[in-house]
Amino acid sequence: MNTPQLVVHRDKELMAQAAAARLITKIVDAQASRGYASIVLTGGRNGNGLLAALAAAPARDAVDWARLDLWWGDERYLPGGDPDRNDTQARAALLDAVPLDPARVHAMPASDGPHGADVEAAAESYAAELAKAAGPENHGPVPAFDVLMLGVGPDTHVASLFPELPAVRETERTVVGVHGAPKPPPTRISLTLPAIRSAREVWLLAAGEDKAQAAAIALSGAGEIQAPAAGAYGRSRTLWLLDSAAASQLPRSLYPPASA
Ligand SMILES: O=C1O[C@H](COP(=O)(O)O)[C@@H](O)[C@H](O)[C@H]1O
Hints:
It is built from seven helices and nine strands. The mean pLDDT is 96. Strands 1-9-8-5-2-3 form a six-stranded parallel beta sheet. Strands 4-7-6 form a three-stranded antiparallel beta sheet. It is α/β, with parallel strands linked by helices and 260 residues long. Helix 2 links the parallel strand 2 and strand 3. The ligand O=C1O[C@H](COP(=O)(O)O)[C@@H](O)[C@H](O)[C@H]1O binds next to helix 2, strand 4 and strand 5.
């Protein structure tokens, strides 16, 4: 596990704009060196704020949208087009406004799709889609994502991995069905911690006072079963992007950074 790096911005608007600028640079760099980039989106307020900021950034035109693979870290298991689905919200915030290749947009299955109410089968099919996209050079049955973003919930959940639920204990599968989530809707699909940790970079987004306790707990050595955000890290970098409200309860040893 690499030590998380923290970047704290003045407020959530600036955090979203700075994170969007950072993401544009990552995508452009990956496309320049490899020809394509691979990004995992998150749902929630902070994730959608970042996508809206990206949509408004003039530099978005630097991205070659047709050479971008998009995946999701989790989904609320609802019918396609439901306003509460993470992919519906991402499309409204950004995806509908840019010339993506639809074959590269890997939304998670919907509850009115081929698997119906069988969320386990839906999770398995997403795991198979990930495995198909993984190359021999990748670390396991998922592609090497350049950046995997995760909104941090006030209870420290990331993706749809909630404290103490079975999904956060999964060590083998890359994608699981989630039942009984404490945040509606109760049925969800989620990448697991092993899948999350296969990403080159994991970015955790936390803005707002309601995220302050979660950030402090996750960054103070909590266990990943009790605080799933504590178990989310990337192979080469783990970055926490916060605003000052979300950083307000961090221990002094973490923030502000010690001066020389
Ligand atoms: O339900 C979800 O919540 C988390 C966090 O959302 P937020 O609104 O508290 O920022 C999100 O990361 C996850 O993708 C989503 O399904």
